[in-house]
Amino acid sequence: AFSTGDLRDTLKISAADPLLNSSTDAWNVWCGGDCQGLNSRRTIFDGGVDYCCLHTVERLRPFSNEIIKGAFVIALPEAQRLVEEGEADKDDFLLLVGYCGWGPGQLQRELDRGDSWTLAAADRRQVLGRLREEQASLTQRLEAAIAAPGLDAAAPGAPLARPTAREVGDGIAEWSRLYRALGPRFVEELKNDTETHTDEMLRRWVDACLIPPRYKPSERKQDSDNDFDLLETGTLLRASAKDWVLGKPGYRMRMDTLTADGVPCQYLHKAVLMLAKDYVPRSKDYALVILLNGPPVGRVEDKDRREVYFGGASSVGGNGNVFEVKGPEPQMLQGMVVVLPQVLEELIDAGALEVVEDVDLQEVLSVPRGERWTAAGGRIETLADAVEARLGDVQKKMWYKRFLGLDLDMVE
Fold first, then answer.
1. Assuming Cys at both sites, which of 83, 266, 276, 329 could form a disulfide with 399, CB separation 3.0 to 4.6 Å?
2. Cβ of 299: how many Cβ atoms within 10 Å?
3. pLDDT tens digits along 236-266
């Protein structure tokens, strides 16, 4: 959650935007979801952001649509008008940007799986009964954050002070309150809750993706330090040990989706990669790269029964997408990482990937898979990096369990 002033300064939204006209100055704004949310905005004219207001004020019923008994939704312009005319107060409304959406059949599949959602009857008092208290609490946190000393914005390229997940909130306490309201069994479940890792990942997501650092446009770096005209076939790339915890290196507009398959990329944590074909930056070409330190995923159906290793989440070509990388011991791999056009150079510029120099392919392939990142020059230099690397290790294991059904503790 933010104030409208914070959104104006952070995202450079035009004053012409209906969210930021004079009648919504100092309104609190809450994240309603990723679909048509803050990160959907490409330009101020794209119309890609969706706003809605919820409230429980009975006298505003004529201007609203009832969702459940006593809870209403109202269009933002109508809410703005009512506040301007003194018919309502801004804190009567929960102003949401974006929403959560599902494709056909997706939500039902998640419900059928049984481990994602708990169905419950909606209750106005539980969902919106503490709205004004929550609004006041958010306002106090944001005002305290603004008053706190920030970083030196005078230094070229230095980020301005910004709120963190601590100020804007992560929603975990509210979720716990609602979960306990479901009954004694759920209260007992929370007593045994050990989801500290996923809670921390949510906070990291809020900090990295929902609250982008503020930079003055004139201070944005225009050119990469990693300028290159061509990356040749066989070039080795080493992935960072700290930038893939969330499946992508922080928040950048063009990094919303990195690969052609669209899946999150936690599996690239501490990855060693090889370009499968020449790549020209700033072109419309996809970058084809092969993961060289992935886990085993099967065996070749031939007389040798050679082991096949995970090469990436995208299917490329035929023959079961299994191919061979020559070396002291030939490597059989399945799949590739197909990086969207112009994304590879951004990943290199962000430090999430680094071109490996002074180490050749045979040196990397000659050591066990678990040691290849180090053989390719990977190092963890600081205690802070070690903490991030440990989180990344857990995230990578969870990715392989979720997407490939593999237990890395069993196969490594």
1. 266
2. 12
3. 999 999 999 999 886 554 556 788 888 899 9
